[in-house]
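Incident log entry.

Two folding requests arrived from the same account within the same minute. Monitoring flagged them as a possible duplicate submission, but the sequences differ. Recording both here for audit purposes.

Request one:
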Amino acid sequence: MALSHSSVDAEAAARLVAFGMRPKQLPARDVVYGDLVRRYGEDNAFKALTHAVAAGLGLMVLEVNQQAGAVLAATDESVFEIKMDSYARQAKIRERRETEKVLHGLIHLATAALGYPRPDDLANDTYIGRVSVEQVDAMVREAARMLDERAAAAEANNDPLADAPELEQAWRAYTRRPAAAATKDGRLAADTTRGMVSRALRFLADQGFLVPVSDEQGGTYRTTPRYQIQVRELAADAAFDDLLALDVVAVATAGGTLRAAASDTL
């Protein structure tokens, strides 16, 4: 029995959503994917149908374009939402306690801020940022140092810290851990902060948000259009603004190569 036009359209919309759930699949590498992305941009009815299909699956369409493909985000309680336990398994986190969750949250926040430290970077679709394991670790440690000073000053002035940003509640746990230590076989120990950062960046690469560039600085990666779209959403988070407000990110070159401002002092 032949399918109706509505059934064919629904199947096409579902296929576009399915493509978006394959992190490393890009329209430029698949003719069908590219055609669906073009149709999404030209056909408002198809666009609305794609959003409806995604919503039915507990997903939100953030963007659809030829550079990034279909970029999706899971809504609260969606079956596709990445829970801490799932992330822990994928990133090979040994401990899944609340502390680990907070620390990895800091790492991901710092990675996003290093990748796109200026509003113009997020607005420019051609911008490509670079991050490395050492840069991310240096940034979090410098932020921790500054938050430590802020907390000490507040304590000296008898100021309450109840209204302090969430970052101020997590720096102690990060700084208590060594930055780097080798295992007997020469690998980076998993419970060091750079070991945690390395796993987090590999996870982002597996999700199509970063692309490995070299082994320099513990592992260097470039950002992707898919990641830029995700960080645009994250930029609305108060914690992201709090981190950038500390001014621990600096642009080292006109070409946009980034470094942590703290890296020279560590």
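Request two (distinct sequence, not a duplicate):
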Amino acid sequence: MGLYIETHIRADLDDLWARTQDPARHQRWDLRFTEIDHLPRAEGEPQRFRYATRVLPFLTVSGTGVAAGEKERADGTRTSALRFSSPHPLSLIAEGSGYWRYVPDARGVRFLTGYDYRPRWGRPGALADRLLFRPLMGWATAWSFDRLRLWLERGITPERARRNWLAELTVRALVLALCLTVLGHGSPPGLPGPFADATAYLCPLLLVPGVFLALFKAPLAGTPAARRCLRAPATRTRAPRLLKALEEHG
């Protein structure tokens, strides 16, 4: 099953196009890539590119892709399709294809993507992809789309958005750790009997909101979040269009 991600960005279509089609800007907001570079091409040839992802400080997985085509409809909708592959033996993705679609409306642009790929390593690779890698790729794409939205709508650079996310994640982890520590130790030692009993009773009740806030509170407005993006077409009628687009540009 292919991946689908959609967001709405209150921005000019040309600005959105530039920050997604220019490799130097693209690699700033897309969590999936560390480097993206256009490769030399002769006039009339499709644009090829190289991408790389730093998995560990000492390990980088790379691949190549080709722009399969671009279309612009009379209503202003634009579509950019591509194919990609990686010969790297440690890359779970062997080859794949996908597209980006830009649909302008009165409030901005609906920006969406559909893509799929073939995992390598046989059955173990297919199992690892289904249980771990594919959900991670879907989350990373959605998180990156929201980071792009913050850049265009609020002027929050991708670098600052990442710092916001790490800071909020750290605070949530500290709050959760504090709540679990207090809950595990119960009331502080040395309190008189009645106070100790009351504290032992109230502590769990007071800690519930803390745990809830740490785990479930919506992220701050300046923090990117995958949950803000659609992970499936809003209506079933769009699903065949996704498959048709992949077939047209595959």
